[in-house]
Amino acid sequence: MTVMDDWVTAACAELGLDPAEVPVPAVLDLAKDVAHQVLRPGAPVSAYLLGLAVGRGAEPTATVARLAELAASWPVELDGSSPAG
Length: 85
What we know:
- This protein has helices spanning 3-15, 24-37, 42-55, 60-72.
- By secondary structure, it is mainly alpha-helical.
- The longest helix is centred in the middle third of the chain and has 14 residues, at 24-37.
- It is 64% helix and 0% strand.
- It has a domain at 23-76.
- It is globular.
């Protein structure tokens, strides 16, 4: 087991969740995509949004894909700011 496996197992036990239902690689990939293509603080917020969506019945893999596609298409100016803000 890795430290990540140990953490997920312990956190799931604390929250009454099944660790087998946690798509760790997909969540990490999403966080990486958002951090690199949108903004770094967006990574944990996006993981939280993913959790909310899945908790409300969304399918995890499809939801990760949708958010990853959104991050990939996110417009970024050369100075790192969004054109809208």
